[in-house]
Amino acid sequence: MRSSLRRRAGSLIVGLALVAGLGACAPEERPLETASPEPSVEPEPTYESTYEAPPAYAIAPLTGEIIEPGSLDRPVFSAKIDNAPLARPQLGLDRADIVHVELVEGGSIRYAASWHSDLPDEVGPVRSVRPMDPDIVSPFGGILAYSGAQQQFIAAMLNTPVRNIIFDRGDDSDLVYRGLPRPSPHNVVARAAQLVERYAGDDAPRQQFAFADRIENATAARDGAPASTLSLRYGQVGQSGWEWSEADGRWLRSQGGQPDVALSGTRLSATNVIVLRVRIDFSPGVPQTLLAGQSGSGFVATDGKTIPITWSKAGMADSYRLLDDQGVAVRLAPGTTWIELVPDTGDATITAG
Length: 353
Known about the structure:
Elements: H1 2-24, E1 58-59, E2 66-67, E3 77-81, E4 98-103, E5 109-115, H2 133-137, E6 143-146, H3 151-158, E7 163-166, E8 176-178, E9 188-190, H4 192-198, E10 210-211, H5 219-223, E11 225-233, E12 239-245, E13 250-255, E14 258-259, E15 269-270, E16 272-278, E17 280-281, E18 288-289, E19 294-302, E20 305-313, E21 321-323, E22 331-332, E23 337-343, E24 347-352
Parallel strand pairs: 3-6, 4-23, 6-7, 10-22, 16-23
Antiparallel strand pairs: 1-2, 3-5, 4-5, 8-9, 11-12, 11-20, 11-24, 12-13, 13-14, 13-15, 16-19, 17-18, 19-20, 20-21
């Protein structure tokens, strides 16, 4: 009996243990899952650009200087300028961009001056043209004022891309008049600013030379030999010179051993002096400097230094081509330029500095 009770009790304990085990394996209750909130997105920062485009600029075609675009959209004004003793000092010559010095009769010299970036109200004394002037001024185009000449030279000048303004002829004679207190023919004046305004629609000139960005990068300044003076002799009368002024940063002109001064009191000077050795033809009855279709030697002076060059000019309306001894185009410094057309029978002497 006792053993029966023991069996029943054991069975009960085993049953209770099974029930407890089944309860332990039941799935646990979990809380309901909820969607996670979207992470907040910071807005992209905005930046205001501080970059400023460099201002637009252009190059002055006769001087190589930096200018505002459109500020020189006008024709160049050129004039034949007297250099006889009674013609000095000249009016407005100190403000020319480019000045050519040419041999005329009697061994004396005369100027073909061109103004574009700095235009005076008046220039003078205005004199007559010579047979080389079409070659000199045609590359600029624009306007040329002169007092007349032999008919063959006037005809040649009229056959150029230049507007001819002749003293005492045509519709523009009101702007070329005798206005200097000097004896004739050394008293003719051209109203340069008014003539340019009258023909403001004419084309501006093209760039005439290769230019460096600043004087120290010009070919002569960079590669040339130091020089202090330049002595030039055209003939018995036509003698002139240049001396380098470190204080002014320019070449200062002399004539007859004396400082060459304009009517304004300003000494004539240049940033660049170009000396071209040229051939002269006397068959027209007056000296004719041969330029179109020609070539030769010479030198360029800039920043107190000189460098030898070869020059050439293909045709009447073509600019000069200036090359160094390596055949590379010579770069001038930005500024004014005087071009001395020295005969190959004359002298061009450089004094080392």
